[in-house]
Amino acid sequence: MNIELSDIETEIEREISEAEATVTQPRGPQDDDHLAATVVSPAFEGESLVDQHELVYDALDEYMTTEIHALELKTYTPEQYDG
């Protein structure tokens, strides 16, 4: 993978209002195109889980077709994440 995990976090946070993103490689460096992301944002309030995930996929559009093969995604509103 030619992109750093921090770059992916930055892209999510830039594209989704008030987002806090954490991106990891759950399978280790040998599967560096398989990633996991936890994203917390008030932008998810009132959105279905599918729509929340779509917001993240849209934010990572160019990376989802080139750098990222699979993304394990967890999305939360701030209230859900704190609770």
TrEMBL record:
<comment type="similarity">
    <text>Belongs to the BolA/IbaG family.</text>
</comment>
<dbReference type="Pfam" id="PF01722">
    <property type="entry name" value="BolA"/>
</dbReference>
<dbReference type="InterPro" id="IPR050961">
    <property type="entry name" value="BolA/IbaG_stress_morph_reg"/>
</dbReference>
<protein>
    <submittedName>
        <fullName>BolA family protein</fullName>
    </submittedName>
</protein>
<dbReference type="InterPro" id="IPR002634">
    <property type="entry name" value="BolA"/>
</dbReference>
<dbReference type="InterPro" id="IPR036065">
    <property type="entry name" value="BolA-like_sf"/>
</dbReference>
